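INFO  loader      accepted 1 record
INFO  loader      residues=252
INFO  predictor   begin
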Amino acid sequence: MKRNINGVLAVTLLGLGAVFLSACTPPPPTPADLPSATVAPTETQLQLPTLPPSWTPGAVATSTPFSEGGSSGGSETTDSAPTVPPPTVEGAATLPPTWTPFRVPTVTPQPRAANATFTPVPPTPSPAVSPTRSMDEGPLPVQPSEVYANPECEKLTIFSEPYLYKQPKTDVAVGWTNVAADYFDLWVRNPEGRYVFREFIPIPEGEQVVYYTIPGSVFTGIGRYTWEVYPVLNEYRMCPTVTGTIFTGQRY
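INFO  predictor   done
INFO  writer      dumping tokens
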């Protein structure tokens, strides 16, 4: 009998649970409760507003300020730009009506004659050699524009060593090539730059080289001496100078 009571209780509990579940569960939604989808409007459904035929664009509003010193009841004036007269300069001269801008003048070169010739100016020879020329004056300088056209000048050159080394007060022999002239004019200058010796040397006939020995009394000091010689023809210097150097010292 106890087993029957338990079975009845179990059936009763199951029944109560089913009733409870059915009471708590909401009913299923109906199709009327579901949200409806929004349908996009079609081209025929869109109606754009149209303007009436009598519509015209509006004009831009302009401000018209009141006249200066006026009141609310005064008249209005239009906003117009003032007329500005052109600037003028007092005392400025005015151009005449006939004035025209300045034009650069053109120069027409004259044609050169086809047979135009130029006459060359002959060179000016050096002044005549003066036998009485002093040591302070020295030999006549060569003119910058002087041209020695004598073919003998091409033969004139130094024959001895251009640099010689001697002890003081020692004779020094120098030499140069011979040319057709009247005589040779020889000068010696000391280390201070002063001419201390001069000699006229005759032309040795038939000789190709002219030799001359400068006396040792000329070389009194220690330093650099220079000698120079040039030919003379008809009392005029005929060719450029031929030069050499003599060094004097105790070690030579």
